[in-house]
């Protein structure tokens, strides 16, 4: 069972585009920003206080930079044939693609450009850019790199996210 | 909490950012972040799933640690600071009940392409185990005192 994970079939998945939740992403609203900020204890008034944000560099409330994932993740649970609550859709999608069972986040690099503003509708373009095999203590694992380009409804670049995940049997 | 200004001239290489602590992360904190972020993976909130995977307790999710690293920076960089890049490497596991200390240090400052850039090494320390469970880097742009 513990064979070579990086076979030809897996290599062919490099370049594969992943689920984008297109058509299901909701516009950013104050409730979503406030809930995110309170949940991680980031109470910066630039994100929460209309009056303060008006006189700040953006002229209005903006979301914290790492918020870009939230509208995407809010579409959880509907789009893949996995039992409810087994996994997040993107991890479940990768496991199905690579026929592996367990996974965890290895590292993430986020580069931020235009801020996320109230009313923005974000678009997520995701692609498997690399797959390598590594030997962990528990056995061989695939190290998968996914690049996600996030843009807004004005076509502005919001974020380039590079996420590396380990998957194994 | 983001109200003071931080200028490029005020920053020196080697200076430490004010550290922050998240003491004894509770299940309530995790559940709030599940709601706030949408990270529903059951390994972070479902004790039965954790037991099936050989874990005593749910584990703290990576996006929460990234949000804590982000807060360290955004609290420090002032109203006109801009977070350009944030990277995080998840080296170790943090569990519900653990206390985390978030720290940073300025590693470089330089001007390039009309921007005043500051790079910081940032990390999350697990107090219970005395190890850095998440390491990372931030790149920030700061305003200059001399500019308008």
What would you note in describing this structure?
The complex is a heterodimer of chains A (169) and B (148). Chain A is α+β, with helices and mostly antiparallel strands and 169 residues long. Chain A has helices spanning 8-11, 30-40, 45-48, 50-54, 70-73, 89-98, and strands at residues 102-112, 123-136, 139-151, 157-168. A four-stranded antiparallel beta sheet of chain A has the order 1-4-3-2, with helices on one face. In chain A, a hairpin with a 2-residue loop joins strand 2 and strand 3. Mean pLDDT of chain A is 88; it is low at 78-85. Chain B has three helices and five strands. Helices cover 22% and strands 32% of the residues of chain B. Chain B is an alpha+beta fold. The radius of gyration of chain B is 17 Å and the shape is elongated. At the A-B interface, helix 2, helix 5 and strand 1 of A face helix 1, helix 3 and strand 2 of B. Strand 1 of chain A pairs antiparallel with strand 2 of chain B, so a sheet runs across the interface.
- What oligomeric state is this? heterodimer
Helical fraction of chain A: 10-25%
**Strand order of the main beta sheet of chain A, please?**
1-4-3-2
Strand content of chain B: 25-35%
Q: What class would the helix/strand composition of chain B place it in? A: alpha+beta
Instruction: Specify which chain pair forms the largest interface.
Output: A-B, 39 and 37 residues
Number of helices of chain A: 6
Could you tell me the number of beta strands of chain A? 4
Overall mean pLDDT of chain B: 93
Specify Rg of chain B, calculated over alpha carbons.
Answer: 17 Å
Number of helices of chain B: 3
Instruction: Report the structural category of chain A.
Output: alpha+beta
Major sheet details of chain A: 4 strands, antiparallel
Please mark out the parts of chain B with pLDDT under 50 across 5 or more consecutive residues, or reply none: none
Uncertain stretches of chain A: 78-85
């Amino acid at each position: 069972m513990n064979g070579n994970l990086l076979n030809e079939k897996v290599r062919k998945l490099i370049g594969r585009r992943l689920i984008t939740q297109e058509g299901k992403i909701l516009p950013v609203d104050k409730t979503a920003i406030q809930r995110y900020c309170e949940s991680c204890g980031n109470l910066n008034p630039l994100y929460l206080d209309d009056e303060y944000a008006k006189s700040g560099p953006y002229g209005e409330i903006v979301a914290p930079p790492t918020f870009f994932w939230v509208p995407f993740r809010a579409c959880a649970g509907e789009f893949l044939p996995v039992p409810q609550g087994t996994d997040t859709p993107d991890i479940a999608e990768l496991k199905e693609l690579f026929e592996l069972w367990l996974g965890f986040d290895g590292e993430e690099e986020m580069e931020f450009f235009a801020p996320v503003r109230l009313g923005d509708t974000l678009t997520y373009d995701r692609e498997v850019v690399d797959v390598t095999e590594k030997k962990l203590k528990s056995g061989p694992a695939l190290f998968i790199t996914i690049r996600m380009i996030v843009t807004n409804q004005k076509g502005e670049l919001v974020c380039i996210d590079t996420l590396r995940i380990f998957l194994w049997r | 909490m983001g109200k003071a200004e931080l200028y490029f001239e005020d920053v020196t290489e080697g200076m430490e950012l004010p550290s922050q602590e998240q003491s004894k992360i509770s299940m309530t904190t995790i559940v709030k972040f599940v709601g706030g972020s949408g990270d529903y993976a059951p390994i972070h909130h479902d004790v039965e799933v954790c037991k099936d995977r050989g874990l005593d307790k749910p584990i703290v999710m990576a996006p929460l640690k990234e949000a804590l690293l982000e807060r360290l920076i955004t609290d420090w960089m002032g109203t006109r600071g801009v977070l350009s890049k944030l990277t995080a490497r998840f080296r170790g596991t943090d569990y519900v009940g653990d206390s985390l200390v978030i720290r940073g240090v300025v590693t470089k400052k330089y001007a390039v392409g009309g921007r005043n850039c500051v790079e910081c090494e940032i990390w999350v320390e697990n107090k219970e185990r005395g190890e850095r469970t998440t390491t990372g880097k931030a790149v920030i742009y700061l305003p200059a005192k001399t500019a308008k």
